[in-house]
Structures are given as structure tokens and as C-alpha cells.
């Protein structure tokens, strides 16, 4: 991966940094323009009793990596809530019979449940990038606190009610902890692959150029098209990013999105999307990444230069390739997307940013140019539900992962909530009689939720104070990442619930890494029990 412009990380961090950057937005590692001011800490009343015997020392100097990260980032929003949230049914929960009835009801529901074995006409695969089990738990609590102003632990995410749940191991052929490329190859092509490779088998290692098509692995999108189904992809990242790319591309290195090394006969990922199957036959493509499709000498609709160096305008190539087909439309703003008439549109390409789409808190309100994940998913369904034979749709909440990489848990939580809304809307619309809906993640993060906070404690707040140094710690933290300090500090007055707050990490890494534990797989609809 690339390092921050003009800055080299400490030598001991370079390997960790490379892996962390594999799924990290370029905005955080190649920031341009003048540095932004460091957001000042805001005093806050944590409504906590100090348990130490002596006052802690003043805040120590901020770790240099935290400073670099802050300078490269935009301060986002304010705290969503302070203090503690009330338990909505405390009196009911205090009655032991409530829990007996709840358990009996759950057993009865399972006994009545009948698996569906009819044909799944439609398949929607929702992928929360980096949405490990700790993220799911924290997001569930955050949802209750953020949206309902209640304790949150009892809240329900849209996939929590799915009748079937399993676990998936995420290791790669050559790594214990994977990136999003080899995991995407596994769940979209059905074959485990090597680190940082896309849509190719074990013979291809990371960074290895290849032109041998016998190494190529067909994806579920190819199988769907062969069966006469319509296909589409939706993501909040670049559409050439690892997760969506594995559905249509074959590459020895995931970062070959707009170019390949000199002498390499293979085509870059964006080129493959436009010119090769199955990508060229996608009915709907919605996400970011306009820069991957335009030459550096060209500017996109927002005046941003492209990233290619071969003179190609692949957006125009896509339009040209659809001239003989039913009406094809290219859109680049939210307004244009919401104005699409599916009955008059045979193919739809929407690229809403030069790079990834902005984080949820970064968007203006209302935002006329950047659509939400639920909005993109709705339009994709509007398009694909016109298929007489059915469809396969991949929907990625890609920036959950990015929020974790910069250890800003608030961002990851906001992205997870938007992902939850997209799933909820889809389940409500499609039902489960002839539509198989799967929700999963490609990997986890070194993201932890700990301490012994009271029920209803702000999930982004302080969980308690150490019995060793009497200093505070937050409920959410990371095993590694940029905000690792040699000396613990007293951050009681920091606004930990702000979207700009960077959670603490146990040991330093240029950017936080993935974690290798199993991830959950939730399913509903025909054959979901498998």
C-alpha cells in the first residue's frame, strides 16, 4: 500500500502498514491539500465517580501517528449522546418469568419453523466489509442508543431475526488473517486463494502477473448469467475495490485497478469490468471510483482528474458497448440516480465519486450528489426485479472496514447502521418465499468491546477506570492501530463519542489491521438452512 505523502512510518511498522492499507481508502494515505487543524477536545461530564487514590497526570503528548492521522482527516460531526441510556423495560426484565416466557417462545418458534426448499428466484448477498462479530454487537447497541435513545443491548439488527446462522473461517491459503481480496474470491468463487489476489487459483501469488486463463476462477455472477439470471453490484467503495472486483475480475494483485506493471499482459480491473464477462453484462453497477475509468488527462464531472495512464475513457467505452442494447444510462449524482426509470433503462452505471463514497457523517444534508447505500440498493432492486428469470445482486457496506482501519469506531458504527437499513429495506421488499438473502462479512478487525460498563452505558463512551493506573478506558478499543501510546493518559475530558475520536490501540500500527477470527453468516429464504 501507499504511505502518507511525504511521511515514512517508523521502520518497525512498515510490514503492518502494508497489510493495513490493503483495505484502506487512499484519502487517508495519500492526502492532498493543506493539513486540517487538529480538533480540540471538548469537556464533558461523564457522570462517573473517580475511583483512584490520586489525580492522574496531565495528558501526555499525542502520539505522532495519531497526529499524522488527524492532520490527514476531516473532523466529523459531534457526539450523538452523552452519559447513560435508560433500559426501556427494566421492570419487565426484573421479573424472572419474562425470561422463562422468552425462552419458551423461542423454542416454540424454532419448532414451528419449516425450511424452505423451493427455487430461489433471486439472491441478494450483503457483505459488511470488516463486520466481525464484535462490530455486530457494538452496532446493535449503537442502533438502540442512536435511533431510539435507549440502552441498546436489547436492540435488534435486521439480520438478527434471520432463522439460520452459521460461522465461516476466514483464513487464506497463505495467511492466517486475510485481506478482502482473497476472502472475496472465497465467498464469490467458492475457492480459497492467496493474499491480495482476486478471482484466481492457488498458482497465482500476490503481485504475480499472469495471462494464463486456466488460473481464472468463475464467480457466482458468471454462473448466474450462464443460467439466464440478471446480475448487479452495489458498493460504497470504488467498484474496482476488492469485494466487488472478485465478482468479475481476475488479478494477481488487488491494487491493479487502473493499471498493471510494465510488461504485464493482463488487463487492469476497471478494464475487465467494462470489456470482459461477467462484468460487461451486469445490468446495474453502482458505487464510487470514477478515477479508475478515466485517463489522467481527463476530468470527471466534478473536475477531478482520472488515474489511468493509457489514454482510455472507460466510461465512454461502456456507453459505446451498450449502443445496440436497450437504453443504457450513466449517472453520477444522487438526483440522477433517483430519477432513473427502470422500465426505460436496460443497463445502469452509476459512479458517484472519484474515489470511495464519503462516510455517512461526511455527507451534507441533504446531499444531492452522493446517494446512500439504501438508495443505491433500492434502485438496483428496481432494475433487477424486472427480470423474468430472477437475479443475483451483491451489496457491500465497504466503509465499515475503513472506519476500523483508522480506529474511528464512530464511523464504523454509522456505516454499519446504514448497512442495516439497506438489509432491512430489502427484506421488507422481497420477503423470503422466493428470495435468498445472505448477510455476512469477509473478515473481522482487532476491534474489541470490553470492561464492565453499566447497562446502557454509551457504547462510544468511557467504560470505567483501570485498577492499575486509575486512568479511564473506553468500551471500544483496538488491538493495534495509530493511537497507541507508550504512556497511558487521562482522557476523561475528551469527547469520545465524537465521530472524530480515534480509539486507543494496544500496540502501534500505521493503520489498524484485520483480525482472523470466524465471521457470522446469516441467511433467510429458500435453502438458507444450508
TrEMBL record:
Residues 1-55 are annotated as: Disordered. Binds 2 Zn(2+) ions. Its EC number is 3.1.3.1. Its main location: membrane. The active site is at 180 (phosphoserine intermediate). One of its GO terms (molecular function) is alkaline phosphatase activity. Mg(2+) binds at residues 129, 241, 243, 396. Its cofactor is Zn(2+); Mg(2+). Pfam families: Alk_phosphatase. It is a lipid-anchor; GPI-anchor. It is an enzyme of class 3 (hydrolase). This is alkaline phosphatase. It comes from Ixodes scapularis (Black-legged tick).
